[in-house]
Amino acid sequence: EWDNEEFRLSLIYFAGDPGKLNIHLRSVINDILPTTASKLDKLCRQVVEEMEEIIYDQTRLSEKSAARKTRQIGNLFYLLVTAFGPSYLWSSLEKAFKKQPLAKRLFYKNCSARMTQLAKMLPESMFTLQQEAVDYFAINRFLDNYSIELVNTGDCQINSPKNPEGGDLIMKPVQELISLTWETLAEDIKFENIDELGFAAGQVVQRFGNSYYAGTNGKDYIKHRIMTFGTSLTPEVIHLKALGRMEEYTSMLDLKVSLDVLKRAAVITMGFVQYEGEIKTNKDRFMAAFWAGYSLGRKKKASELKENQESDN
Hints:
Helix content: 55-70%
Number of domains: 2
Oligomer: single chain
C-alpha cells in the first residue's frame, strides 16, 4: 500500500501517558506521502548495503559492535540525530519527509567536533573513532542519495559543478577512496575535492604512524610528535608537521618507511596548496574526512578482535 497516494501519513511527537489521557503534544508532521516514507526507508537500506563490507573489513570492531553499528546506520532517526544533533531531529525529519534540501555544514561541524575530541584520547579511543568514521560515511552517503533521489536538484553527480560548501556534492565510496590513495600511481593521483584530500592525508599519516610506532618502541606518532601538550590537530598542522616532516623523522630516527609512502605524502602536501582556500572555509569538512581516513587506516588483528569481543560481554 506504500504506492497508494490517495492517503497521507501524519507523524506525531508527544509526551505523557495516552492511557490516562495525559498527553502533551510536542509537534506534528502532516501530509507525508507514503512513497516518500518508502523511499527514505530504501535509502537507509542502501546505506547498510554499502557500509556493511566496510564495517566488517576495514574496522577493528568486534562482531557484536559491528552488528550494532549496522543496525544503527539503517535507522533514519539515528542518521539525522547523529548528523545534526538531537535539537534538530524534528526539523530535519520534517525536511526529509517534505523532500527539502538537507545541508551538510552542521553535519560536518558535529562530526569533526566529536572526532577531534576522541583524537585527544588516542590510541585508546581508536575503536570509538572508527565507529564515528562509519557514521560519517553512512550519513554522507544517505545525504548524497537523498539529494539525488528525493530533492532532485539535478546537480548531484560525481563530475557536477562545485556546490556552495566546496568540492563536488557526491563522495566516492570508501573502497574507491582507499584505491585512490594506495593503488593509483603517486604521480597520477588527482584529488577532486577536499574530502578526498583529507581522507588520503589521514590514511598516509596512519601508515607512517605504523612505522613510527615500530621504530620508537611503541610511541604514537600523532600524540608524540603532532598533538603535543594536548593541542588539537588543524589542517595547517597536518600539512606542515604531520606530512611535511615525514622525511625528516624518517632520516633522523632511521625509520623503515617505504619511498612510496613518502611520495604519496608529498603529493598530498601539494594538494593542500591547491585547495588552500576551500580548506580554510571548510575546516570541519576537511578534518572529518581526515579522521575518517586515519581511523580506517588501521588493519584488523586477531588478538584485538578477541579483546574487543571480551569487552563487549
